Amino acid sequence: MFDKILIANRGEIALRVLRACKELGISTVAVHSTADADAMHVKLADESVCIGPPPARESYLNIPSLLAACEITGAEAVHPGYGFLSENARFAEILRDHGITFIGPSPEHIRVMGDKIEAKRTAKRLGIPVVPGSEGGVTSDAEAHKIAKQIGFPVLVKAAAGGGGRGMKVAKDEASLSNALATARSEAKAAFGDDAVYLEKYLGKPRHIEIQVLGDGRGNAVHLGERDCSLQRRHQKIWEESPSPALNAEMRAKIGDTVATAMRDLKYLGAGTVEFLYEDGEFYFIEMNTRLQVEHPVTEMITGIDLVNEQIRIAAGNPLAITQKDVTFEGHAIECRVNAENPRTFTPSPGRISYYYPPGGLGVRIDSAIYQGYSIPPFYDSLIGKLIVYGKTRNECLSRLRRALDEYVVDGIETTLPLFRQLVRNPDIINGEYDIHWLENYLAEG
Ligand code: ADP
């Protein structure tokens, strides 16, 4: 096992990793920008290193600074959290070249899954069902028109290098396809420096259902069930739950086994998530995230498995300690992502937290790095906390979530808490009847 781990992240996820390290008896190194000198992850770590000025590209994304921090502190491994360098194959490679363990998959797997066209091709080869669409990238308008006609309108133009919903455009009909292609291309070029795009059938009312996996790189892999992340605005998840209100045990086992088998074939190492759209009883692969996800706690709550602990154990070279039979699902968990944003316009609302009172009690978990008097810097993601609630049944979970949201106080800034207080009382949400467009429609209705 490692003696010392450097956590190349900030905010709640830095704390999440730090907690797992402490429980494993591993020393922790926090890194921070000058804007984060007062951050909680810095206060709680055994050591900390300032790695640069506020902009992320000069600090949290600054590979030479991170390498120097590893060298100065003697850290043997780096946990990247999510975002920042967590899906950067080059970073994983550079660490490997310096004899430092990247807590995550091999650079090769990160690279394959980071290119959505390659990822889709790989998924198909491994027997995972994919969305009908172009076989690879589309290079000309004429080719796109031909393929679109075959799969049928509406179609979605997606960026090969895509992420965060950028470089994605719907074409309703033939007339709008050329325009959608051009817009997606220029958006992708601007955001990712790569204008490769591909076509997919646009699904009208799917749910977003993803499967959590763990593999040890030796051909052992298990799935930890699904998370339903259909409640999204601008393709960003805000509410995640497990189990999905749309699946039964048989469907879960079927898609879970398909994914676990694929991960065994791939000799996948670490934690990962295979994302699907689910419509009319069918699953369609959209992408794989080769890292820990924001919404991982809901899976932890219903399986009792500490995902970060497992990531660290596997990265240290230990074989998977659990088999599929050991994975059981009990109860229901929901996560709400609390952002420092206006709950209607979603405009960021950084600033000082004048009063803070997080909820507690049975089945309530808060993953957050904020505290009373803390000033949220304007430079980073606006996620300030995750409220994760567990109940024996979905109904118990919803009642508990309702009262936890009512207890939660964050004063001095705007947060998305009022939106969640409405959602948890909405009949569609209570009945579990929502698809990926539900929230946008709800918000549009005012
Ligand atoms: P990103 O990497 O940019 O997040 P994804 O491929 O994961 O892109 O898709 C993000 C979201 O976009 C999905 O959760 C879903 O809401 C929507 N989406 C993606 N592909 C399709 C599709 N073929 N049909 C309808 N919606 C889609």
How much β-strand is present in the residues?
25-35%
Annotated CATH homologous superfamily of the largest domain? ATP-grasp fold, B domain
The percent range for helix content is: 25-40%
Please tell me the total number of domains. Answer: 3
Number of helices: 15
Give the spatial strand order of the biggest sheet: 13-12-9-10-11-14-19-17
Q: If you consult CATH, what is the topology of the largest domain?
A: D-amino Acid Aminotransferase, Chain A, domain 1
Task: Characterize the biggest β-sheet.
Answer: 8 strands, antiparallel
Q: How many beta-strand elements?
A: 20
- Based on secondary structure, the structural category is alpha+beta
Fold and architecture overview:
By secondary structure, this protein is an alpha+beta fold. The protein folds into 3 domains: 4-88, Rossmann fold (3-Layer(aba) Sandwich); 132-201, Dna Ligase, domain 1 (2-Layer Sandwich), CATH 3.30.1490; 207-445, D-amino Acid Aminotransferase, Chain A, domain 1 (2-Layer Sandwich), CATH 3.30.470. It is 35% helix and 28% strand. It contains 15 helices and 20 strands. It has helices spanning 11-24, 40-44, 63-73, 89-97, 107-114, 116-125, 141-151, 174-192, 249-266, 296-303, 307-315, 394-407, 417-423, 427-430, 438-444; strands at 4-7, 27-33, 47-52, 77-79, 101-102, 155-163, 166-171, 197-201, 207-216, 221-233, 236-242, 269-279, 282-289, 332-339, 351-352, 355-357, 364-368, 375-376, 383-391, 409-411. The strands form 5 sheets. The chain has an 8-stranded antiparallel sheet with strand order 13-12-9-10-11-14-19-17, with helices on both faces. Helix 4 packs antiparallel against helix 5 (107-114) and helix 7 (141-151) packs across helix 8. The longest helix is centred in the middle third of the chain and has 19 residues, at 174-192. The chain is globular, with a radius of gyration of 21 Å. The protein starts with a strand and ends with a helix. Adenosine-5'-diphosphate binds at residues 131, 156, 162-165, 200-203, 206, 208, 232, 235, 275, 277, 286-287, 436.
